[in-house]
User: Which sequence fits this backbone?
């Protein structure tokens, strides 16, 4: 049944992804697309929306996909689907944090634990980098690499907005202001140039 499948899939994502957020993105992409729950282009659009809305990234995506898949069974099915997927992605972290909170003081000076934490840091960075590359590939090179992509207005608008937001981030501007400015710039330029969504 779809509700159990949603719960188990997102439980697996929550259990085997260290670092949360962007580190979850490669596994979310793989599982969601493999199950045929959402198209890759639609997933990319929702990634942008989920980053601009309150709440953790993984919970937003799980809730959204669960509600879409459950809505085949009516409004209550959509709500239950959202609940199953969200519970699945949150439960592993909740259980692990409870265990860590109980045992961390005892093991924090253990060399094996310290080594594991040191090893996990580059893995998380690698997962985040893989997510960025996958999203960039889907957005800018959906049909494969082409030099023509670098001449499109969409590419240059994205590059300029990225550059502005990077400068603002380096100047320690509040992230809420950065997200708001980038949304307003994207909408304004998109409408002015009639760019495809």
Assistant:
């Amino acid at each position: 049944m779809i509700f159990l499948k949603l719960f188990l899939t997102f439980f697996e994502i929550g259990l085997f992804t260290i670092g949360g957020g962007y580190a979850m993105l490669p596994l979310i992409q793989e599982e969601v697309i493999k199950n045929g729950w959402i198209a890759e282009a639609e997933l990319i659009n929702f990634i942008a929306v989920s980053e601009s809305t309150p709440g953790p990234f993984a919970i937003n995506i799980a809730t959204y996909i669960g509600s879409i898949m459950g809505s085949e069974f009516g409004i209550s099915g959509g709500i239950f689907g959202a609940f199953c997927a969200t519970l699945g992605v949150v439960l592993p972290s909740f259980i692990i944090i409870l265990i860590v909170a109980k045992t961390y003081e005892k093991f924090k000076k253990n060399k094996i634990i310290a080594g594991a934490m040191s090893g996990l840091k580059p893995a998380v960075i690698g997962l985040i980098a893989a997510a960025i590359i996958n999203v960039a590939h889907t957005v800018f090179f959906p049909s494969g690499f082409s030099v023509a992509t670098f001449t499109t207005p969409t590419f240059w608008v994205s590059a300029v907005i990225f550059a502005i937001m990077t400068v603002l981030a380096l100047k320690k501007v509040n992230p809420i202001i950065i997200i708001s400015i980038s949304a307003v710039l994207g909408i304004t330029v998109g409408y002015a140039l009639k760019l495809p969504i």
